[in-house]
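@channel sequence for tomorrow's demo:
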Amino acid sequence: MNPQLPDGLSKIVMQLLEKEPSSRYKSIEGILYDLAHYEDPDFQPGSQDMDLKFTISEKFTAENGKWPCCGRPGMNLGMTRRVW
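structure tokens (generated this afternoon):
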């Protein structure tokens, strides 16, 4: 990129411009962390970045009508009262 740009900042910009979306930053927190630490000698862009979306593992979803963790759809999961 720009030779006047510090190496760490150049790495951040390159990660922001990655062609593959899965290789780009996933959160603003990851970018802010990197901007605060790009001068560290062992800096690796994206090392503290994480996807903050909540996802449910496939283990906990129905597959072909079978619910391995819960028995069957609609089965009582042991809750005796509503919390909300």
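heads up for whoever presents: The CA atoms of residues 67 and 75 lie 10 Å apart.
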